[in-house]
Design brief:
Helix content: 40-55%
InterPro entries: AAA+_ATPase (IPR003593), AAA_lid_6 (IPR041627), ATPase_AAA_core (IPR003959), CbxX/CfxQ (IPR000641), CbxX/CfxQ_RuBisCO_ESX (IPR050773), P-loop_NTPase (IPR027417)
CATH topology of the largest domain: Rossmann fold
Number of helices: 37
Organism: Beauveria asiatica
CATH class of the largest domain: Alpha Beta
GO molecular function, one term: ATP binding
Protein name: AAA+ ATPase domain-containing protein
Family: Belongs to the CbxX/CfxQ family.
Number of strands: 23
Length: about 950
């Protein structure tokens, strides 16, 4: 109509001598959905004032919507001072309206069983009255809608009766017409109920639905006795892993509710959280309200409902997603868990994520969808999966051999250890892969069975578990000094075989957590990979992959990040092997201790217990540190496998094996011939020399055992290739000279590295904390214990330019101690030398800023100790608050440093030091301001 049309309407009323202008649903003028509505509203407000005593303006609308309408303009309430509220009709008034409409339609000829004011019509009125005081309750319109349902029931009944009686009473409404079928009788005729009972497994879910149906039966009798009814809600949470039948049961559940008269329509509408999320603020509420309004009388299924959580708290952060928060708030405001609600909302998801979501969103959601009444869908048992397999094979027209059935069930059992095991969906995956392999074999003429799947179709290597009993020695054939480990694994195999023969679960008798102790290069990582294959072949794991991580991968950078990181790594390794290297570092700092506590707690949870192999690896003396920090770790890692250093004889044998393997590979390719006679048939003198050199190397703290022998073998091979390149014919010869030379070269190099003199003390850090900090911050190599009063920076001579000599402490006017540069590749620390052209003033200030940075770290470490030792609770809280602020500062600085390193502002790669107004590299010549870094 617009302003012009409104003006014409007002003029017409004035021409008629005045009157009343009634504006229904007036709130639409301010809703923004009506083009020109605000202009019309502003025009009317002026006319209301101008035409007082000439024209009466009446605004009508719903309570909630009119509240926002009055809030649009403060002048509206004063221009419309009289307010008339129309309350919802009472049950008695609804009964009168019901009688009036029936009599009006049929001219007082239609009768009702027990009368139009009798018991059954009173029950109808009470059912309508349960919607009172709720948004959208239609009052008289609701009566009209219900009568439409009553008339449809009557029509269906008359059509059935005419098959037996040609003249039924068309002007009678029976009890079933008015109230719907009795729940007991309705269940007998419900196809959905019969299908639900025929589903495989789901015992607890069927019992829960049966209990709900029994409540409906009890309430039906209570209505007939005009007694109070049992309060219950149709809204439920469905918890379970994928493939457990949540969506299938949701559809059947909705149809059962329709069949027994608890829902008016019964259609099942499936939505995902993304269907509710809008693109702009305010749109999420509109989408949610639209979906809820369109599913009245239906079943609304929100699959993967944990996606409604904004994820802030669960990710260890404080961010909030206003779009998703608005969805939950709208659901809480609209969905009510009361008897008689013509609505059923089902939230589907995995238990852990759903529990976490309910903790992090509007608390009203957990009241409307209590976990205590959730339907829990357990994983199918092996016998149930076998029945599901038979059913799917029958529906697809296939059969399986007895061996194939055994293989597929073993594959399903192994798959259980994977995260989010697919249950019935896993059966579909295996069948699809088997049918594909079967078709390939059929096309190639390798089988004549067109509709029978064999073991090869499901798993081409299905006999691995039968061969696993004799594979361990072969698997570790190329590993030196592993006799005890082989015996241990063979013992596990014997235990598994015995428990299976006794009908027991072998997983309960086999350890899944191990502590690997030993020097570097003794085969800890290699053994982890081979153990993964042994456990996989035995059917204990679904994957032989080893997920390798270090202790730092478990530790967060700020409060609340550590727990999720640990769980994420465990989830990633489910069904496989998780190797945590350098585990001794889990004793350093509060975050590391938190990671250790989280790991200890997770091991005993059902999600991880016996579902993956967890290995803590580290050096023999250092690995005992975490065991002392958390005593619970010892009981959770009872199996210890010690790795010893190789003796000189084993070193010689391993070197010979590696070079003989290179010889075999070369000759298999036909590209060259190689002689390794000096190792295959060594002379006593040569053997003694090599033994002595290996003894010298193994005495060094940096000796890497098999890792260094691999390096030696490559160096000897390269020396042989260089010598052969001078000959016309390619003939490689590994001579005693090459072996001795490379061994002596490595021994001399290691000896020189272990004898690096110390530089000038930094001073002022008597407790040695700076030494520990530098080792972590600048990635320094391990050092021997120093006198606390002389904690100092150290560096390798090989990293210095030839012209630079480490100054003597007694030399006069010596320059300030050079700083260490952080090597982003993780190599040893190197000296940051003063760049050419850097003034004395800049260099001295840079040294002071570096010292200040170290002093802050000393203070931080002191606060950590003070927090643990504080007896006063108030003091402890104050220290914790200061530590949190310090952590935030450290995190921001770490991000800045990472950005500077990634941008390559310092070509040499020196560490960056914070100064007033920006950052300067440790060499002194490169400065980046705060403003430049932000841009």
């Amino acid at each position: 109509m617009g302003v012009a049309g409104c003006q014409k309407l007002v003029d017409d009323v004035l021409d008629a001598g005045g009157g009343v202008i009634f504006i229904d649903e007036a709130y639409q003028l301010s809703s923004g959905n009506s083009p020109g509505g605000l202009a019309v509203l502003d025009f009317l407000l002026a006319e209301v004032e101008n035409l007082r005593s000439k024209v009466c303006f009446v605004l009508a609308g719903y309570n909630k919507q009119m509240e926002s309408f009055f809030a649009h303009n403060p002048g509206i309430p004063s221009r419309f001072p009289l307010e008339m509220k129309f309350d919802d009709y009472t049950d008695d008034e609804l009964l009168q309206i019901l009688e009036l409409k029936i009599n009006s339609k049929y001219g007082h000829r239609m009768k009702a069983e027990d009368g139009l004011r009798g018991l059954y019509c009173r029950i109808v009125a009470r059912r309508l009255g349960r919607g009172r005081d709720k948004d959208g309750f239609g009052n008289a319109r609701a009566v009209e809608n219900l009568l439409g349902t009553v008339y449809r029931r009557q029509s269906d009944r008359l059509r059935r009766q005419r098959r037996e009686d040609p003249r039924p009473d068309d002007l009678l409404l029976t009890k079933d017409d008015l109230l719907g079928p009795e729940p007991s009788n309705a269940l007998l005729k419900s196809a959905a109920w019969a299908k639900l009972q025929d589903l495989i497994g789901l015992k607890s879910v069927k019992e829960s639905i049966k209990s709900l149906v029994d409540s409906a039966k009890t309430n039906y009798q209570s209505e007939l006795n005009e007694e109070p009814m049992i309060e219950y809600s149709l809204n439920r949470i469905f918890l379970g892993n994928p493939g457990t039948g949540k969506t299938t049961v949701a559809k059947l559940y909705g149809q059962v509710l329709v069949d027994i008269g608890l829902l008016s329509m019964g259609e099942v509408v499936v939505k995902n959280p993304s269907d509710f999320v809008g693109a702009v603020l305010g749109e999420s509420e509109k989408l949610t309200n639209g979906i809820l309004a369109s599913t009245v009388g239906k079943v609304l299924v929100i699959d993967e409902a944990y996606g409604l959580s904004d994820g802030g708290a669960s990710q260890g952060g404080s961010s909030s997603n206003p779009f998703k928060s608005a969805i939950v708030d709208t659901i809480v405001a609209t969905v009510h868990s009361t008897v008689g609600d013509d609505r059923c909302v089902l939230l589907l998801g995995y238990r852990d994520q759903m529990e976490e979501m309910l903790q992090n969103v509007n608390p009203g959601l957990s009241r409307r969808f209590p976990l205590s009444s959730a339907f829990t869908f357990e994983d199918f048992s092996q016998s149930e999966l076998s029945r599901i397999l038979d059913l799917k094979l029958k529906n697809q027209g296939f059969g399986v051999t007895p061996k194939a059935r055994q293989v597929v069930l073993e594959m399903l059992d192994r798959a259980r250890s994977r995260p989010n095991f697919g249950n019935a969906g896993e059966v579909d995956i295996l069948l699809n892969e088997a049918k594909s392999r079967h078709q390939k074999r059929l096309t190639a003429g390798m089988t004549a069975r067109t509709s029978t799947l064999e073991a090869l179709d499901f798993d081409e290597n299905y006999e691995r578990h039968e061969r696993a009993e004799t594979n361990v020695e072969q698997l570790f054939n190329d590993t030196t000094g592993c006799e005890r480990l082989v015996a241990t694994l063979q013992g596990y195999q014997e235990t598994a075989r015995t428990t299976k023969a006794l009908g027991l679960d072998p997983k309960e008798e086999i350890p899944f957590t191990f502590l690997f102790r030993g020097p570097p290069g003794t085969g800890k990582s290699t053994t982890a990979r081979k153990m993964g294959k042994v456990f996989y072949d035995a059917g204990f794991l679904s994957d032989a992959t080893v997920h390798d991580c270090s202790a730092s991968d478990l530790v967060g950078q700020y409060v609340g990040q550590t727990g999720p990181k640990v769980r994420q790594l465990l989830d990633k390794a489910l069904g496989a092997v998780l190797l945590i290297d350098e585990a001794y570092r889990l004793r350093e700092g509060d975050f590391a201790k938190e990671a250790l506590d989280e790991l200890v707690d997770a091991i005993t949870k059902d999600r991880y217990h016996k579902r993956l192999i967890i290995i803590l690896a580290g050096y023999e003396h250092d690995i005992n540190g975490p065991l002392a920090v958390n005593p619970g770790l010892t009981s959770r890692f009872p199996e210890v496998i010690d790795f010893r250093s190789l003796d000189s004889t084993e070193c010689f044998d391993l070197l010979a094996k590696k070079l003989i393997k290179k010889k075999t590979d070369l000759e298999a390719k036909g590209s060259a011939h190689m002689h390794v006679d000096c190792l295959e048939q060594p002379s006593a003198e040569f053997q003694a020399d090599v033994y002595a050199l290996f003894e010298c190397l193994s005495a060094q703290a940096s000796w890497g055992n098999a890792r260094d022998i691999e390096t030696l073998a490559n160096a000897v091979f390269q020396a042989a290739m260089k010598a052969a390149s001078k000959l016309e014919k390619v003939m490689l010869t590994v001579s005693e000279t090459f072996v001795r030379a490379e061994l002596e070269k490595m021994a001399n190099e290691r000896q020189s590295r272990s004898s690096v003199p110390a530089e000038k003390s930094t001073g002022g850090m008597a407790d040695g904390v700076s030494q520990l900090y530098l080792a972590a911050q600048y990635r320094l190599p391990p050092q021997s214990p120093l006198d606390p009063a002389r904690a100092s920076f150290t560096a390798q001579q090989s990293m210095l330019a030839p012209s630079q000599e480490i100054p003597d402490e007694s030399a006069p006017n010596e320059p300030m101690t050079p700083m260490l540069s952080a090597d982003t590749d993780g190599n040893h620390g190197r000296v940051a030398v003063r760049d050419v052209g850097v003034s004395d003033e800049i260099w001295e200030q840079l040294q002071l800023d570096a010292q200040a940075e170290l002093q802050r770290e000393v203070e931080y470490q002191a606060k950590l100790r003070a927090k643990n030792e504080a007896a006063d609770e108030a003091l402890r809280e104050r220290i914790v608050k200061e530590l949190i602020e310090e952590e935030e500062r450290r995190q921001k600085e770490a991000e800045m440093k990472k950005k500077l390193e990634m941008e390559g502002r310092c070509p040499v790669g020196y560490h960056w030091i914070r100064q007033e107004g920006g950052w300067r590299c440790a060499g002194g010549s490169h400065f980046v301001s705060e403003m430049e870094l932000k841009n």
